[in-house]
Design a protein that fits this description.
The chain is α/β, with parallel strands linked by helices. The chain has two domains: 9-367, Alkaline Phosphatase, subunit A, CATH 3.40.720; 378-462, Arylsulfatase, C-terminal domain, CATH 3.30.1120. It has twelve helices and 17 strands. Strands 2, 3, 6, 7, 8, 9, 10, 11 and 12 form a nine-stranded mixed sheet that branches. Strand 14 and strand 15 (401-406) form a beta hairpin.
């Protein structure tokens, strides 16, 4: 299967807000092979500690998501390929590291300069990429996208625009955007959670007699934080609520938004069960990057959205598949968002994958929760300044150890350029082991540099015009 397209690169782009619309459906003809349906539910800016199944908080309430964990597998070392939205979504759609496709920052974005210059980056997911939706559709799946896309040059969506979901393998599309700000408080479905859910259920209903890929991409719990007052007040009344902090660890508004989304997840899963599709439907619940926090060292993992500490990239991941995944099972191996692509290809019986897929199929873990995937390490490359994060950074995790490179310091050979953490003994990344474990540091540094060369990662360069304030 081949696609034609252009990789677009520019030095700057303008932010434009779009709308949502529902284009017509191009029905896919079913074949005679029994293939599992795929229901992929993606949350926005949801941290691991906010999901009750992980047992890290009593503040947030997610009974329907937790039910998926009871019926399936929970992953304790699941990662996003980037600490922000667009690159992680690109990794899901392509099975490749963001650095390989040069899509390493949110779209749209612009070059930001500090002590370092940002390298050129792609401003859309190239149409030449064979996406997960492309390859599943080519193999008999009906494909539907409902919610946030965030992989085109801007968010001015219109049906069949190049770079939007229709050109990337999706038959049915509902494209939605988060609210622009908190000034408009009319209505109640600000983040389109109910709308996304209704269209997802309708798609499943219409395609119940053929294999389908239903990509449910919620805007929640991304800011602006908006939810019904009565639901927010429920969480404000909890004794451990962060009521005085805009982006707190125990955030009442986020908790209310999450409850709404959790109820929506329950509606979709209940409909799957009602239609008798549970035995042949893989259900994935996942988040694209970590929670936005003001205090990045407050509780739980260090860091948050937009940096490469665990709080920014270590995600909740739950996969349920009746009779194929043992209920209540737990896996501790390293997995990353690149892995979904080869996983769904394997379950669909697709052997001919595109070149340079970086992900590894998770199917062996379904069969044996205690097994390990065959790969050396997982990697990150984020050569950008981001107004929310501790950036720019790169990182590698191999086994228990994780090495972070802080580009500003490392490229100027200054102290603080490298941080090494033992995540088994120090999951909050409090103790830098670079000086005490020089051999491990050097080994991981070499591994990271070799990987960057292999995927063609573009590096930052010193800015000769920078003047410190």
């Amino acid at each position: 299967m081949k696609k034609k397209g252009i990789n677009y690169t520019t030095a700057a782009c303008c932010i434009a807000l779009g709308h949502f619309a529902l284009p017509s459906c191009n029905q896919v003809k079913p074949d005679n092979q029994v293939k599992p349906n795929v229901l992929f539910i993606l949350a926005d800016d949801l941290a691991r500690h906010q999901v009750g199944a992980y047992g890290e908080t009593n503040f947030y309430e997610t009974p329907n998501i937790d039910r998926l964990a009871e019926n399936g597998m929970i992953f304790m070392n699941a990662y996003a390929a980037a600490p922000v939205s667009s690159p992680t979504r690109a990794s899901i759609m392509t099975g490749k590291y963001p650095a390989r496709i040069n899509l390493t920052i949110n779209i749209p974005n612009r070059y930001r300069r500090g002590r370092l210059n940002t390298p050129p980056f792609s401003i859309m997911l190239s149409e030449s990429e064979i996406t997960m939706a492309d390859i599943l559709r080519e193999n008999g799946y009906a494909t539907g996208h409902f919610g946030k896309w965030h992989l085109n040059v801007n968010r001015d969506y219109y049906p069949n625009r190049p770079g939007d979901p229709e050109s990337q393998g999706f038959d049915v599309v509902l494209h939605t955007l988060k609210p622009e700000n908190t000034d408009n408080t009319t209505g109640s479905d600000w983040h389109n959670t109910d709308l996304i859910t209704e269209h997802s259920i309708s798609f499943i209903e219409k395609n119940k007699d053929q294999p389908f890929f239903c990509y449910v991409s919620y805007n929640a719990i991304h800011r602006p934080e908006l939810e019904r007052d009565e639901l927010v007040n429920k969480y404000r009344a909890k004794p451990d609520a962060d009521n005085d902090e805009l982006y707190g660890y125990n955030n009442p508004v986020q908790a209310a938004m999450l409850e709404t989304m959790d109820n929506a997840v329950g509606r979709i899963v209940d409909h799957i069960e009602k239609l008798g599709l549970s035995e042949n439907t893989i259900i994935v619940f996942y988040s694209e990057n970590g929670q936005l926090l003001t205090d990045k060292a407050s509780q739980g993992f260090r860091g948050s959205k937009a940096d490469l500490y665990e709080g920014g990239i270590r995600m909740p991941l739950i996969i349920s598949w009746n009779n194929n995944i043992k209920p209540g099972s737990v896996n501790n191996d390293l997995v990353i968002s690149n892995d979904f692509y080869p996983t769904f290809c394997e379950t669909a019986g697709i052997d001919d994958l595109p070149k340079n897929i970086d992900g590894v199929s998770l199917v062996p873990l379904f069969e044996d929760p205690g097994s390990k995937l065959e790969r050396e390490a997982i990697f990150w490359h984020f050569p950008h300044y981001h107004h929310l994060g501790i950036c720019p950074q790169g990182a590698v995790r191999k086994g228990r150890y994780k090495l972070i490179e802080n580009f500003e310091e490392s490229l100027y050979n200054e102290p603080g350029g490298w941080e090494l953490f033992d995540l088994e003994n120090d999951p909050r990344e409090t103790t830098n082991l670079v000086d005490s474990l020089p051999d491990v540091t050097e080994q991981l540094r070499s591994t990271l540099q070799i990987w960057r060369r292999n995927v063609g990662a573009q590096m930052m360069t010193k800015n000769p015009y920078y003047r410190s304030q």
